[in-house]
Amino acid sequence: MDTVLDRRDPFLSVSTLSISLESKRLTINMPLKRNGPEQVAAFFDELDHPLKEAMLSVRAIILASDDSITEHVKWKAPSFMHGGDDRITFNLHRDGRILLIFHRGAKVKDSNGTGRLFDDTTGMLDWLADDRASVAFGSVEEVLAKQDDLRKIVKMWITAAR
Fold it and tell me: In sequence order, what are the beta bridge partners of 129?
């Protein structure tokens, strides 16, 4: 039995696997797992949300804030990672706003009772716990008006959440 991976279709993320059994050929199309940026691009391609442009702006700001930030889809929304750990995740609402959840991953981390991770001088963060906060946006104009503060928060969060 010979197994050969013939080709990849990068647009469909499908591979063709050919198996020969004594001169009979069987072709199976198997989906490949997309990498993180491909997952997020597909998410936005399929997204029907009134704040899609705001979300795309937020995404660009986050990714430009630190070269070591990567992205993927987790919890049915784009999530941004640092060092392989989720740190910032979109929470989509249909009530006219989007939320960014700043966290230290899915598992509770010991904060040693030291208080909030850092002092938010922008006033944008709504602290949900000492190591979890959110920021809400209601329009692309609001995102653009607050982009410098958002970039600052992302940098501070990535540094403090390590």
Answer: 132
